[in-house]
Amino acid sequence: MNDGSLDIRGITVRFGGLTALDDVSLTAGLRQVTGIIGPNGAGKTTLLNVLCGFVKPQAGQIQFDGRELTQLRPHRLASLGIARTLQGVGLFRGLSVLENVMVGANSQARAGFWSALLGLPRSDRDERRLRQQALEALEAVGAAELADSMPDTLAHGPRKRVALARALAAKPRVLLLDEPASGLSEHELPELGDLISKFAEDATVVVIEHRMDLMMSVCDTIFVLDFGKLIAAGSPEQVQSDPAVTAAYLGAADAGPAEAGEPPEAGPAEAEEPKIAGEGLAGHE
Ligand SMILES: Nc1ncnc2c1ncn2[C@@H]1O[C@H](COP(=O)(O)OP(=O)(O)OP(=O)(O)O)[C@@H](O)[C@H]1O
Ligand SMILES: [Mg+2]
């Protein structure tokens, strides 16, 4: 529909013999936070990869604001206003915080940031605008004072903010967040929740996250994936009390020790964080 919503219909993705997504349909509305949860390997990141054009589905359609996106390439999607953060932090080590965020702002610039890196001519006006947008995005996530720092010198929490600012700098109409809370400590979650809600004041926001306390507080609607299939959808309360969801998470917890893990600590920044697939749903009142 022509209302700023993101519509996914019948998406199927196979990697060889593995069906990572099996006929998945969902809608993410404008000014809503739409959550996607599910045990490890459920297909969440794959779904985000389809949405930003990194992975081509074998079947299905994606529409944004009434417009067919399925066959568009990633850079076209970015220019339509679709931005994402990566499951890891994914900042460029050789660039300052401000420059990293300028890379995000670049999807709107006329002459490219990359051409600037290559020493090609570009207008001062573009440069100034990129800087301004990047600074505004850093301010929006409360990280303006980090502009001149190098990413390697920052703790995990501030780096996640910078990654968010980079996605925001493109002034996205759709913001896709893959595990924005991973590696953050408990006391950093409410602030992240507030930020995510703020992003949704003016955009369509899709969040993948294992931290159920955050998802319960920030999402308007939650979709639950398990082995590539959509097994539940509804308000956080509905999903939380859905026996199919509890069963999926308990099944995942039975499958191995990794699922019974602690909440992710702020460990080595780029490492795969431990997952807490089982936490929150079964025990959350
Ligand atoms: N490029 C790929 N090639 C082959 N298999 C893949 C590829 N990407 C994902 N998969 C597989 O697809 C399934 C879904 O993976 P995906 O990363 O989407 O899960 P996820 O729900 O994001 O899990 P996690 O919570 O661990 O991040 C997994 O079995 C994974 O191993
Ligand atoms: Mg993932």
What value does the Rg take, in angstroms? 19 Å
Overall number of structural domains: 1
Q: Which structural class do you get from the secondary structure elements?
A: alpha/beta
In helices, the fraction of residues equals 25-40%
End-to-end C-alpha gap: 36 Å
User: Main β-sheet: number of strands, strand sense, barrel status?
Assistant: 6 strands, mixed
For the secondary structure, the number of strands is 10
Look at the structure and name the CATH superfamily.
P-loop containing nucleotide triphosphate hydrolases
Number of helices, where a helix is a run of at least 4 consecutive DSSP H or I residues: 10
Unreliable stretches covering 5 or more consecutive residues: 257-285
The chain-level mean pLDDT equals: 82
The small-molecule ligands in this entry are: adenosine-5'-triphosphate, magnesium ion
